[in-house]
Design brief:
five-stranded antiparallel β-sheet; binds 2-(butylsulfanyl)adenosine; 24 strands; alpha+beta; single chain; five-stranded mixed β-sheet
Length: 702
């Protein structure tokens, strides 16, 4: 295909794919199979690769991301992003309506209000020029925000190119949200990697918009609703009209919008959604009531913070009391013990809550939790129900305090705790069933050996049938051993903790067995860096494994290295060095590795410059506070190793601040005043690709 033909085909494919995206994501009426859609997309990706200069900035391929090192320059908003006045009771709404009517000259019957859902996400300003999305900016401090265009382009309900008769220049305001199904999936993935899970959809949406790798943002499957059009001389007389026009141009406008003329109608809308909100596939935290007419809005004006023509009615965080039935102690794959409360089932936020997390021993102490207690549970904004207190008036006089266990509930080993940490853990890593299964699951994971068709449930079946007790045993599996195995397993939805458990039958049929055996064969080709990561050495995440493999080159050198030699490697601190030594000092691990070696897995590679990963190149960074996974010097060392520059005080030249616990208030204020991005520890770790740090570590990583 020559360049002219390629240009034509790229343009044609872009239009076809855009239309399919619109049918699928906006209209929910796909007119093509997923397979055919993928074929079109693949054709476009291939053409754009071959002719990179011809790729359009609005190409639907942007939806899958690609920029690894997104920058988030600060951009001043053309129209300030104000917030809304909040109200928490119906009387305040009635006051707002009466006040509004009074301030307007019109007869009271002439004021129309538009009631909308108040989406609980992150507000975004989208600028369109000649029908093309040119900029997406977060709210920031209202006057200026971060430009996150590349990441926003991955959100399929945000049009990159508009259809129909749109104005040349305008801004669309809306909310980026994370739907519940994405939230559950992402948290499951994070938990699997040992990363802290997101507490709620809003935090997850906000974190996902600020990722340096837009491919990862694409993977988060964010969504969007638009609710406010802004431009000079808007050609519509009402908000409702403007939204209906925007819908025609391709924006995702919520269908749950109502023009109301009376207080009664507004109250009905609020009452309806106060109940029905629990059936929505995303979080809302209230209702927004807006004056419909733009002329009337003008008359009402703004305060410095919010418009006088709108108000938010916020739903109350629901709270219920229920009885504590018992406490379970779960063993995580790193051996960490998590106490979980079993509750007398109770309705909360539209679902039945049966369980709630108790975090750790300290949390139980703080609550002063006793057997049979009546506890107060909330679910406001957060998907995971939380116990926030105990109704001590209802406590029985003779009830005992809840005692944290001393021995592992799975293998009986005495639990240990590291100084200064709240978590207890089972140290029997090679003999404790959930830890054994967890390590095997880590080994087969996508970012490790990538053994397809062998998910969590199947590992359990193989373990129960005594076919695997460590990851080397996987390579002794044969067709005959696997074929015909089956088990009915109950998988609990641990992220909602609401016992939304599903029962599924796992069976090893011909195709599955062949897939497993093929993937195991193929895994002989997986490069050494990934094999080293797959071994699951405590606190050796993806990036650390890569740097160690690049520096030392082969497993024998690593096995023989002393703690001091290991510490000479960039990013390997004392704790990691000790963990590595401990791992290789255990004869059982050596014999497992020898078996893997016999099977032909990769245990060496060419040495490479250890500083290949330069994600922080050219960045000026200020570190402040105390960190869970790094010592102060350790984090600074990591920054330097990855090409960044440490400075001690914040100035306009600072790219970002990495804030740990107890960051000084002065520093925070200064960063905020200068509009400098503040990353928390998890965000920083994500930025540098350290996605595998254990949730609860036994010391500092660096
Ligand atoms: S209109 C002048 N409509 O709520 C403010 N905002 O506290 C115009 N929000 O920052 C905003 N759903 O992020 C509007 N249907 C909706 C909304 C909505 C959620 C958010 C938005 C805003 C915040 C106000």
């Amino acid at each position: 295909m020559n360049e002219t033909e390629a240009r034509e085909r790229i343009a044609e494919l872009s239009v076809i794919i855009d239309n399919h995206n619109y049918n699928y994501y906006i209209l929910s009426q796909p007119t093509i199979s997923d397979y055919d859609f993928d074929m079109l997309m693949n054709e476009l990706i291939k053409l754009e690769k071959k002719f990179p200069d011809l790729a359009l900035p609005t190409s639907p391929t942007k939806r899958v991301g690609g920029d690894i090192t997104n920058e988030f320059p600060t951009v001043k908003h053309r129209y300030p992003m104000l917030s809304l006045a909040n109200s928490y009771n119906r009387d305040e709404i009635i006051d707002f309506i009466n006040r509004t009517k009074k301030q307007l000259d019109d007869e009271s019957s002439q004021v129309e209000f538009v009631c909308e859902l108040k989406f609980d996400g992150v507000s975004i300003s989208l600028t369109y020029e000649h029908g093309v999305l040119v900029r997406a900016v977060t709210r920031g401090d209202g006057a200026q925000g971060d430009e996150v265009t590349n990441n926003v382009k991955t959100i399929r309900t945000i049009p990159l190119k508009l259809k129909g008769d749109y104005p040349d220049f305008f801004e669309m305001r809306g909310e980026v949200i994370m739907p519940h199904d994405s939230f559950k999936r992402i948290n499951a993935e994070r938990d699997d990697l040992g990363l802290q899970v997101f507490a709620n959809c809003r935090n997850a949406a906000s974190g996902s918009l600020k990722l340096f790798d837009s491919k990862e943002t694409a993977n988060r499957r964010l969504d969007n609703f638009c609710y406010y059009m802004m431009m000079d001389d808007i050609p519509y007389s009402s908000h409702y009209e403007s939204l209906m026009a925007a819908k025609d141009w391709g924006f995702n406008i919520s269908p749950h919008i109502k023009v109301c003329r009376t207080i009664g109608e507004i109250e009905d809308f609020i009452n309806f959604w106060d109940v029905k909100r629990h059936e929505l596939p995303f979080d809302i935290d209230g209702i927004v009531i807006k004056v419909n007419s733009f002329a009337q809005r003008e008359q009402l004006g703004l305060t410095s913070k919010s418009p006088r023509w709108a108000i938010a009615y916020k739903f109350k965080a629901e709270e219920v009391k229920t009885r504590l039935l018992s406490v379970d102690f779960q063993v995580g794959r790193h051996g960490t013990i998590t106490p979980v409360a079993n509750l007398d089932p109770v309705q909360l936020g539209g679902t039945t809550v049966r369980r709630a997390t108790l975090n750790n021993a300290d949390f139980i102490k703080q609550l002063d939790l006793h057997n049979d207690d009546t506890v107060i549970v909330v679910k406001g904004g957060e998907i995971i129900p939380k116990i926030i207190g105990v109704d001590t008036d209802r406590r029985k006089a003779d009830s005992d305090e809840i005692q944290f266990i001393r021995r592992c509930p799975q293998c009986g080993t005495e639990l240990v705790q590291n100084e200064g940490e709240a978590a207890w853990y089972c140290p029997n890593s090679l003999g404790c069933p959930p830890q054994i299964k967890g390590r095997i699951e880590h080994f087969i994971g996508r970012k490790a050996m990538n053994i397809e068709s062998l998910g969590e449930g199947k590992v359990e079946v193989l373990f129960d049938n005594h076919l695997i007790n460590n990851y080397a045993d996987l390579y002794d599996l044969t067709y005959d051993k696997l074929y015909g195995l089956e088990k009915v397993v109950t998988v609990e939805d641990e992220y909602s903790l609401m016992n939304e458990s599903v029962t599924k039958k796992i069976s090893f049929k011909e195709k599955t067995v062949n897939n497993i055996l093929n993937s195991l064969m193929k895994s002989r080709e997986v490069p050494f860096t990934k094999v080293l990561f797959a071994l699951g050495i405590r606190e050796v995440g993806e990036v650390t494994a890569k740097i160690i493999a690049n520096t030392m080159g082969d497993i024998d050198t690593i096995m023989k290295a002393t703690v001091e030699e290991l510490q000479e490697i960039n990013t390997v601190g004392e704790t990691i060095a000790h963990n590595i030594r401990e791992f290789f000092d255990d004869e059982r691990n050596i014999s497992i590795i020898n078996r893997l070696r016999e099977f032909g897995l990769q245990f060496k590679q060419e040495k490479k410059a250890a500083t290949e990963n330069q994600v922080l190149s050219g960045k000026t960074i200020v570190v402040s506070g105390v960190f869970a996974n790094f010592s102060r010097d350790g984090i600074k060392q990591v920054i330097e190793d990855l090409g960044g520059k440490n400075v001690s005080s914040i100035s306009a030249k600072t790219d970002f601040v990495v804030a740990g616990d107890k960051m000084g208030p002065e520093k925070r204020k200064k960063a905020e005043t200068l509009g400098i991005r503040i990353l928390n520890e998890t965000e920083f770790m994500e930025m540098i690709g350290m996605t595998t740090a254990p949730k609860l570590t036994t010391g500092t990583l660096f």
